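Chain particulars:
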Amino acid sequence: MVDRNFLITPTDISVTFSVAPALNALYSIKLLRGADYVSGLANWVYETIAQLTAEELLTHDAVVEMLFDGLLVPGLAQLPDFDTYLEQLAKTDSQQLRDAAMSWMRKIDDYPGDEALLASFEVFQNVIKEHFAHKGPEHEPDEALLQRVHSLLQAPSDMHEAMVRHLAMLWEVYLKDEWERVKGLLEASVRAFEQVDLSGLTAPEIVQYVTGRDVSNMDITAKISDVQHLLFVPSQHIGPYIGWMPSDKPDMMYIIYTARVPKGTQSQNTALDRSQLLIRMNALADETRLRMLELLTEHNELCAQDFINMLELSQSSASRHLRQLTATGFVKERRRDVAKCYSLNRERIQDL
């Protein structure tokens, strides 16, 4: 059923599948900025981000990208709908919300402390920029964004109001009708996976089976090594990728996967089948990605730098294309020292 080439010893893992409406919608909102550096997400993501004004984008980057931990209210996955989530977020104490929003900052090396960070924009800017420096220029926040985030952190009630107002706007204007459109597909995926016996598998093996991805070399393997509970949430917006979010329970992880049915089972939902096919076809609907696959038929293995040189691509462009080809399973990725190298997945090609 799955590749058992993992070093992690099997343990008793509790596995649950849920549409999780509030968590699901919040993750779709978080995906919006992924449009800037990931291809293959749902059209809704690209269409929505393109309609936001410059001011709305700045607010989004501040409250969703930089202060996201403050949005994770207790029991998020159990809330019945996004309106209930907004009500609970609005009732959260502003100081408590700011404390949660800053939690990731406290993990930065040489963190100067909350008081120093809040008192000086220069200190805040230096700490945050240094943290993002190694992630590449496309991820580094600009000064206008840092100014907005710092001013919100200095005024917790303003930050609180901005979070609730922005999320409510996105829900009412862009996501509410979309949610009604995709909800049935998500429910069908949950029902299908609830019929599968996953007992005796390790956490990475379970994730691999549910997502259809080889996760042995992915960061998620380390993240789930100590968890006892996995909650799988199907998404119609995530494309071929895997997402994860921390739970308010330390031994639980939320895994967001592409809404699909288990491999080897007979699907009763043609819309879900069509959605899966479109995700794969989208990866092939680009001349650069087709050329990458062609090169891999001529070479047993090529590294990212090889594609950059052969196709005259920027590093960010090459990474974007290779990320989508890997996520859809057309190529296999492995590390050779510090380089990421790729080979053709002939089994997936034959599935077409």
